[in-house]
Amino acid sequence: MSDSVTVRVPAKINLVLAVGPLRQDGFHELVTVYQALSLADEVTIRSADRPEMRVFGEGARSIPVDGDNLAWRAAAALARHQGWRGREHELHIVLRKRIPVAGGMAGGSADAAGTLLALAELWETGLDRATLSKIAADLGSDVPFTLHGGTAIGTGRGERLLAIDAPARFHWAIALSDGGLATPAVYSRLDDLRAAGATPSARSHQEVLDALHSGSPAALASVLRNDLQIAALSLRPELQATLDSGLRAGALAGIVSGSGPTCVFLCQDQPQANEVASRLRRSGACRDTLVAHGPVPGATALPTTSSLLREVAR
Ligand code: C5P
Known about the structure:
The chain is α+β, with helices and mostly antiparallel strands. It is 36% helix and 28% strand. It has helices spanning 70-81, 107-122, 129-139, 143-148, 183-195, 205-214, 217-221, 229-235, 239-248, 270-283, 305-313; strands at residues 4-22, 28-47, 52-57, 91-97, 151-155, 160-164, 170-176, 225-226, 253-256, 263-267, 288-294, 300-301.
């Protein structure tokens, strides 16, 4: 048994996010194509006498370390599933954040997915990914995807996944904003805008799948779509200037990521992503920038010191 387990979990973006009607349960029916990006959080968990959480990195001070944190909810859900109610109180959890907080890139979901995988290992549950995925779905719509990674179609409220084999690598410049946006507020603004006459755009996820298979960044750039973008822009009009700056900086296309306010810019290749990121940073149209590529695998346990020593001894 390991002393601690560390799991790396990717951010997600939505290449297409087609939002359907509001359901009885308060969620919207949607069709999305997720892509996991090389921007990742790390979750490290070890057993402890009492519960403790430490958070480092991007936005650390704004993250709750109590039971409101989705990582604790994930630990409680796994303990409950195993019939070990209360065992989540015997954990020390460290989150190393790189994914923007409340930024529309599933940072909180990634931490929950990382917690599930780390604990499945630490507690030696022997649970497979399909079972973890079911627990993940109850925690949040994006949690199963951050566990799964790669590229996938998401349906239902986003939790039902169909993996897509699309290995071509795409390069992204990412513009971080000051402050986050609350996902429910963005969905609800979209409902208001639609009630006032805004219509969903006509693009289908099939166009995105074709573009992914072609491997052409230009083809993908022409079909990116996010129905939540008008709602995010309505709540944060200054994001339009960020999107415009990214295009002026040479990106092939830019969209708000998920519910925002992070904006992501598809670029021709890695050098162009670096260039777009540095021009965007200099333009002052965003708080900071990053670069990333996708797709990458989902939540992955990093080798522990003891497993590395075992390898060396072989
Ligand atoms: O599933 P998750 O916890 O990420 O959802 C947060 C909120 O976002 C929901 O409570 C709901 O208001 C909104 N949402 C939605 N439709 C979805 C996913 C999320 O309305 N498909």
